[in-house]
Amino acid sequence: MLEVRNLKKYYQLKAGIFKKQVGFVHAVDGISFNVKKGETLGLVGESGCGKTTAGLTILRLIEPTAGEVFFEGKDIFKATKKEMRTFRRELQIIFQDPYSSLNPRMTVYDIVSEPLKVHGLARKKNEKTEKVSQLIKKAGLSPHEHMHRYPHEFSGGQRQRIGIARALATNPKLIIADEPVSSIDVSVRAQILNLLQDLKKEFRLTMLFISHDLSVVKHVCNRVAVMYVGKIVEIAKTKDLYNNPQHPYSEVLLSAIPVPNPKIRRKRILLRGEVPTPVNPPLGCRFHPRCSYAEPACEKVEPKLINIGGPDEHLVACHLRK
Amino acid sequence: MNKTILQIKDLKTYFYTDAGIAKAVDELNLKIERKETLGLIGESGSGKTVTALSILRLVPFPGRITGEILFHGENLLEKSEEEMRSVRGGNIAMIFQDPMTSLNPVYTIGNQISEAIELHQDLDRLEVNKNVIDMLKKVGIPDAATRQRDYPHQFSGGMRQRVMIAMALSCNPELLIADEATTNLDVTVQAEVLELMKNLKEEFGSSILLITHDLGVVAEMSDKVAVLYAGKLMEFCDVETAFMAPQHPYLEALLESIPRLDVDKERLDAIAGTVPELVNPPQGCRFHPRCKYAKEICNKQEPQLIEIEPGHSSACLRVDEIYH
Ligand SMILES: Nc1ncnc2c1ncn2[C@@H]1O[C@H](COP(=O)(O)OP(=O)(O)O)[C@@H](O)[C@H]1O
Ligand SMILES: Nc1ncnc2c1ncn2[C@@H]1O[C@H](COP(=O)(O)OP(=O)(O)O)[C@@H](O)[C@H]1O
Ligand code: SF4
Ligand SMILES: [Mg+2]
Ligand SMILES: [Mg+2]
User: Fold this and answer.
1) For A286-303, how does the pLDDT look when each residue is reduced to its tens digit (9 = 90+)?
2) How many folded domains does chain B comprise?
3) Torsion of CA B190, B193, B194, B200, to 10 degrees
4) In this structure, is residue B110 part of a structural domain?
5) What is the CATH number of the domain that holds B236?
6) Interface ipTM above 0.90
7) Which of A22, A87, A183, B24 has a C-alpha 20 to 30 A away from that of B257?
8) Which protein residue's CA is at the shortest distance from atom 25 of ligand 2?
9) Interface of B with A in 208-237 (CB under 8 A)
10) Average confidence (pLDDT) over B202-227
């Protein structure tokens, strides 16, 4: 349904009082993957690896540096204004921070009805009110009680429900959820995850689920792509990745997660050094300066993402896996 | 043989706000033993930070503290401000979630650690400087001799957190309070910092009050667990019991609501509703509006924390009916 090919986004790096351009942030540096109809693909990795940039670029909310993105076979980056309107309706985004992604001066009604207005989906007033209250109900809020209130009157979890109602307003086919539960309290997180699960089924949604929380991703996603400094290093079915990670970085990442079971004492792989900056990423395999398996080739040649899983597709970019 | 290093008795920290009295911490009783890590958990607004600030007497206006906070048997609430200054960053050190709030941006890292050391130890300049470099090395800062001349903003988040730990531990505190100290770090960096805290506890024999909402971190690090909800201590027990056989509906529900790496679940058992506000908390048991076991009595009578078996306390009116 969504196919991303060799997507790149470089930000200009400026410095000094004259804001001279001194280089590029290689935030997303040639990533390829696809999201199949009806599935939830997880995009994981540590902060700064390029997850948000990838999401925003796919939706063309920021302009790409290179690459192609096909939605149902049509190239989003080559779309005309008119085609872009359709894409904007069919692809929606849910943001991490429900506090800053909602306009504080708009009521819940205004927020949820805005996309209906923009896309001409409900022309008559009563039609619009009806639609909005339906959406609010679906997101687990009460139209009667909540429709005419402002975002600051809600808790974090409820604000995320408003964001979800807004995203669903255009009846989208694909939703990109960027850390949708990361800033929500633990006890309320489950409510939002269950809500997303239910709505996904009801609206037959396809989802790209961006998160740094590997426990959440394991629960929500069918397949998972792991990013490291602007590159995808591994893509596999969730079970395969978690039980049998093939990339050394995925292995480290999974071993680092504390498990809520004091009887499980896991062997942890500690990393040396720090995450390299995406301004001057290491040559060869970007993970090589920190990888305990690195060979001479890893310093020079960039490994390609190849399938080692046969029909089950387990893709990995590492010289040790062939 | 008194091994207790910190004992909190009937601690009440109330904020007298325009909207009313927020009972952020209400009748808290807790103990931390020597060389022990106590995990203090509860979602945001449950009073974890206020508890930590109360111990150090750093609660801001309009907060007021009553009760007793016994550190080696001496009540910290009766000490002079001067005496408290030498307790802070000396016997008791604290690491916060955001290290920038406690690092001074205009001094080098080395300067700040030296100052912490000089405040509590009588050493000459050379010795102090040697200590600083040793400490930075110990927390895994590469090239410590050079990097001590850098300013806080020249360090990454993970490195700053290590500097904080170096600073906190440079005076061998008997009690380290870590308030969401690894919450903003990436998991691989968190793993290193946790490892570091474990090692230093072994080496210096410090006790740790570990505040976090991450149940994984608590399971990994703690010996004992205390669960706060809306300012009230709901359950207290050893870590295995907390995760294997909790005896309070809140902890039970919390454990069932989280997605976990070690358990597969079709659907999470979400807890209904949200955390209450503290100015007008629910009557009776503060958890009753969200509790799946709640009966009529729960909104009438306030539960007391009772010891249900040695070393295990729970504040639930129906604990016997539910768990036996
Ligand atoms: N608008 C921007 N200008 C310059 N650099 C940016 C911008 N947005 C993000 N970056 C940089 O791009 C990299 C990737 O960021 P981001 O996509 O937000 O990562 P993630 O979502 O995985 O944490 C980071 O190094 C970040 O500092
Ligand atoms: N400066 C303050 N003024 C008024 N109330 C406060 C202040 N600081 C904390 N509180 C109250 O104390 C409660 C508990 O806060 P806190 O200890 O920070 O929770 P936690 O650390 O568990 O997230 C808050 O919900 C708030 O009601
Ligand atoms: S006292 Fe009642 S409401 Fe509170 S936890 Fe026990 S059963 Fe639930
Ligand atoms: Mg992001
Ligand atoms: Mg706090």
Assistant:
1) 999 999 999 999 999 999
2) 1
3) 180
4) no
5) 3.40.50.300
6) no
7) B24
8) B45
9) 213-222
10) 93
